[in-house]
Design brief:
Length: 158
């Protein structure tokens, strides 16, 4: 069954036509060119495909297009235009929190969600905030440090 599904993508109203059972991840990448949304496990386990849907972090591989109707979706492509992204980007680079970079967009979206809800997280809060995101190469200590640094240096942004 083909349907027209409208939603807000990175601040812009868009309409997509297709099956409501299609994966949001594939639609974002293939129909809208948001290739910063990475395709890892396709099972909701790695967080590489994380986006923010109506203010909540979701794994877009687990979201059917029917559920995206009328929602507001922010991907790394939209988030990278913000000062908060710039603060996280700087902190990830200076803490050495990026190696291959595959997990980084999802980590950044998780960090944004965490800091939105808690601008002054302690280490435990950060570890919980990124617990749905896997990194195979950098190691979590540098990522946790980067998010703590972004929170400190970006004081007032969240
Ligand atoms: S690709 Fe979606 S959680 Fe891994
Ligand atoms: S930097 Fe390679 S998976 Fe995280």
């Amino acid at each position: 069954m083909i349907q027209k599904i409208g939603f807000i993508l990175n601040g812009e109203a868009v309409v997509w036509k297709g099956s409501p059972a299609a994966r949001l991840l594939e639609v974002l990448r293939e129909s809208f060119g948001n290739t910063g949304v990475k395709c890892g496990c396709l099972e909701g386990e790695c967080g590489a495909c994380a986006v923010i849907l109506d203010g909540k972090l979701v794994n877009s591989c687990m979201v059917a297009m029917g559920r995206a109707a009328d929602c507001e979706i922010i991907t790394i492509e939209g988030f990278k235009k913000t000062k908060r992204f710039a603060a996280l980007d700087r902190a990830f680079a200076s803490a050495g929190a990026v190696q291959c970079g595959f997990c980084t967009p999802g980590m950044i979206m998780a960090a944004e969600c965490l800091l939105r809800g808690n601008p002054h997280p302690n280490e435990e809060d950060i570890r919980v905030g990124i617990s749905g995101n896997l990194c195979r190469c950098t190691g979590y200590n540098a990522i946790v440090r980067a998010i703590a640094d972004a929170a400190e240096e970006g004081e007032g942004l969240w």
